[in-house]
Design brief:
The structure is a single chain. The chain is mainly alpha-helical. About 70% of the residues lie in helices and about 5% in strands. It has a three-stranded antiparallel β-sheet with strand order 1-3-2. Helix 6 packs antiparallel against helix 7.
Length: about 190
């Protein structure tokens, strides 16, 4: 089902605190939990809770975990939009980037076959897929970079309750888990 963009953004405009609150909640939500979140984050227009609930589901901001189910999750595009708007970076695992690399290898093979067959339409499709994957890689690597820098800054600035040794271990964990594998994946002579 397609969502009408103007209606979607009009709803978002009047419900920023609600959307942010929903996006910050991990996991599944029951209808009763969503009602409580709506009540805690009323719209500027004084909209009824039932109306906000209906809009959340009709605009596919909340989607059921199973067809006809009574548990809901915030749609992934909403999570990404809120993270983008509030500049909340999330680290991408090296395994996800490796998946992108495998996708590029598949696209490379398809492109080669299309060129050999002189199939212009298939060449164009393969190039579009390659460009889309490269954009995702770049965006994920940049977001990971921002996330790591933010985490390091937070640990450097935090003065109480965390020893220097604990700070160093956490920063080292980020380096070992995200930065070093990512560098190995994207450097020219690497994987």
């Amino acid at each position: 089902m397609r969502v009408h963009p103007e209606r979607f953004f009009r709803f978002c405009l009047g419900h920023v605190p609600l959307l942010r609150s929903l996006a910050e909640r991990p996991g599944e939500l029951s209808e009763a939990e969503v009602y409580r979140v709506i009540q805690a984050n009323p719209s500027r227009e004084g909209e009824a809770v039932e109306t906000a609930w209906r809009n959340l589901t009709e605009l596919q901001i909340l989607i059921p975990t199973e067809p006809g189910g009574d548990l809901f999750i915030v749609a992934d595009p909403i999570h990404r939009l809120m993270a983008y708007l509030f500049d909340e970076a999330h680290a991408t695992t090296p395994e996800i980037v490796r998946g992108y690399i495998l996708s590029l290898e598949t696209n490379h093979s398809q492109l080669g076959r299309a060129i050999d067959a002189e199939d212009i339409a298939s060449v164009q499709l393969a190039l579009e897929d390659i460009q889309r994957t490269l954009r995702r890689i770049r965006a994920d690597v940049e977001e990971t970079h921002r996330c790591v820098l933010s985490e390091v800054s937070l640990f450097k600035a935090e003065r109480r309750g965390v020893t220097v040794k604990q700070k160093f271990r956490r920063i080292r964990q980020w380096m070992d888990s995200y930065v070093a594998p990512m560098v190995e994946i994207v450097k020219v002579e690497g994987n």
